[in-house]
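# nightly structure sweep
# worker-07 picked up a monomer target from the shared queue
# config: single-sequence mode, recycle default, output format = structure tokens
# input follows
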Amino acid sequence: MSLASWFRWNEPPNRISQRNPTEMVVETLMMELSWQIKQAEKQQRERENEYRKIKTGVDYGWLVSYPKQSYDISPGERLQLEDICTKIHPSYCGPVILRFRQLVAEYEPEVQEVSRLFRSVLQEAVEKIKEEEDAKKLAKQWNTKNKTSLSLTTFKSRSKISPFISDIKTISEDVERGTQPTRRVWSMPEFRNAK
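# output follows
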């Protein structure tokens, strides 16, 4: 028996499973939310310990054991947040996380407020994506309109007008033939009395 079979050097490396990019975005954003909730809980516990220390003058923090995660968002709210996350394009995942972290650092929200802050960041990103898509659609429509108008312009410029062959009667033709011109003005339609 060879050592290579023990270490599995000859086998191809396991590849990361091919998943849908939308699923990866949802999973990444929800992991960020749960991490921020844990951090908010930790900060809230530290604030409570500082308050107790100031109030009683004694530090019993070493005696208290805290559960790993006591706050969790409701299943309905989680589904709503995951639904909003599906609307986020993968290229916006990083900026959304950065914006969320920035707001959490700025406001230092309570644990219950973290999910609302996360929702506002997601909705802001969805609106921005929608605005950019609308702008792209308008630009595309504008470009197609310009292309068609240019093609019509080039088509019109190719058509030639022959001044000697015309079905349009003019006053000068009537004078040259020696006939009497009619009384109407040529730019107006001809109205005749029905008798």
